[in-house]
Structure formats: C-alpha cells, structure tokens
Amino acid sequence: MKALRPSDQTWKRLISVFICLNLFTILYVNLPERVHKTVDQAITARLFPQEQRLVRTQIYHLYQYAHLVGLDNRWQMFGRQSRFNWHYRIYGLYSDGRTTAARLLPDPRQFPRNLFQRILIDFKEGKFHLNIYADKAGRMAYAYYLARCNPSHEGLPIQSVVYELHHQWIREPKVAQSLGSHLDPALNKQTLDVFFVGANQPRINGVSPPKP
Fold first, then answer.
1. What is the pLDDT of residue 120?
2. pLDDT digit string, tens, across residues 98-140
3. Are residues 89 and 188 in the same domain?
4. Which of 13, 122, 141, 158 is deepest in the core (most CB within 10 A)?
5. Contact, 190 vs 163, CB < 8 A?
6. Do the beta carbons of residue 163 and residue 192 sit within 8 Å?
7. Parent domain of 192
8. Are strands 156-169 and 100-104 parallel, antiparallel or unpaired?
9. CB neighbours (10 Å) of residue 193?
10. Of 125, 186, 200, 209, which is closest to residue 157 (Cα–Cα)?
11. Chain centroid, CA 209 distance in Å
C-alpha cells in the first residue's frame, strides 16, 4: 500500500475539519429555540462578563458562517402560514450598578406614525423585522447597532437589549365574519431575546419594560 505523502494527509485533515464544522453548524443552528435559551442562560449564570462576551462573539461568528455558506435556511414555501399578527418591542436596559432604567429604543415601528409614514417610509422596517424573525444572529447584530447608537440614557450606560414579541391571533374566516373583526383582542407577549451588550454586564433582575 502506497504511503500517503504529508501533503495528502494535510488535505485529508482539512477536508475532515471542514465536514465536521459544517455538520456541527447545521446541528447547532437548527436546534429548538428552547435549547438555545438554555445555553444562553447557562452562559449568563456560569461565566464572568468578559467570558460571556467572548463566547457570545464566537456564537455570533458561527451564525455568520452558517448564513454565508447557506446552512441556516428554513424552508417555508409549502408550509402552513402563521395565523397571527406580530411586532417587536425592543428596549434597552441601562445601569451603572446602582440605578437601572428601561427605555424603548428608536425604531419607527415602536412609536406612533401617521398613514404617510407607515405606507411610504416604514415598509422597509417591516421587511427588515421579517428578515430577522428567524435569524437570531441578525437580531443580535441589530441589538449591537442600537446599543452603539444609544450608548447612554440619563447618564446610565447601556447593558442589555431586550426583544419582546407581541402578537395577536388571526381568527378563522367564519369566526371573523360573525364577530366583525379578524384579530383576537388579546395581546400576547413573549421575551424573545436578551442580548448583553455592555462591557461590564451586571446582573439586572426585576426591571419592568418601559411603557410605549
């Protein structure tokens, strides 16, 4: 049997690493959302702030790699359409370790807008929110962007960016016709993400979101 030259062995190792990286990436990015939340909670509970930032940066790069090579696709062309109307509520938590304040971050869809603004200007915001709906790496990148644009509030540095998902169920056609409204009046709220964007992140608990 002919011995492999060193160059051949090197190429085989590189190919093996590439295959393992892709398999791990596919596995990780397609894990259920509850698993990602458990991992995020473990990072927060067990690591120091600098270590948290390092690990989350590596996770962000993993998502970026998955996006660039097309491993994060979730095909829904022939899937059942979601029957709810939704929007994000994105706010920042500001703290100096003693005082904590919550503030809605400037996003056009979070503040009152007139008809002209909603139809002719804000449509791109809706498209952007739709693009990051199934893209946690995109939400994280947008959180860091908002933090850079809004680094402080009333003298307090920003520490976290929180995504809340608000949605109302769309009624079945027959029910909507009989009631005269296609939306269920109940507003459901879910904390989707908490991204720690401060350099020295203190533990922030029990802070109520700001009122819109």
1. 77
2. 888 999 998 877 887 788 877 777 777 888 888 888 888 889 9
3. yes
4. 158
5. no
6. yes
7. 84-196
8. unpaired
9. 20
10. 200
11. 17
Which carries the bigger pLDDT value, residue 114 or residue 58? 58
In SS3 terms, the chain reads as CCCCCHHHHHHHHHHHHHHHHHHHHHHHHCCCHHHHHHHHHHHHHHCCHHHHHHHHHHHHHHHHHHHHCCCCCCCCCCCCCCCEEEEEEEEEEEECCCCEEEEECCCHHHCCCCHHHHHHCCHHHHHHHHHCCCCHHHHHHHHHHHHHHCCEECCEEEEEEEEEEEEEEECCHHHHHHHCCCECCCCEEEEEEEEECCCCCCCCCCCCCCCC
Helices 49-68 and 136-149: angle between axes, nearest 10 degrees: 130
The answer to whether the beta carbons of residues 72 and 135 sit under 8 Å apart is yes
For the ranges 146-155, 156-165, 200-209, the lowest mean pLDDT is seen at 200-209
Tell whether 92 and 63 lie within a shared domain. Answer: no
Tell whether 108 and 167 lie within a shared domain: yes
Whether 47 and 142 map to the same domain: the answer is no
Q: Looking at the predicted structure, is the pLDDT value of residue 143 above 90?
A: yes
pLDDT confidence of residue 92: 93
Instruction: Let me know whether 97 and 165 are in one domain.
Output: yes
Q: How far apart are CA 175 and CA 171, in angstroms?
A: 6
In a domain, 182, yes or no: yes
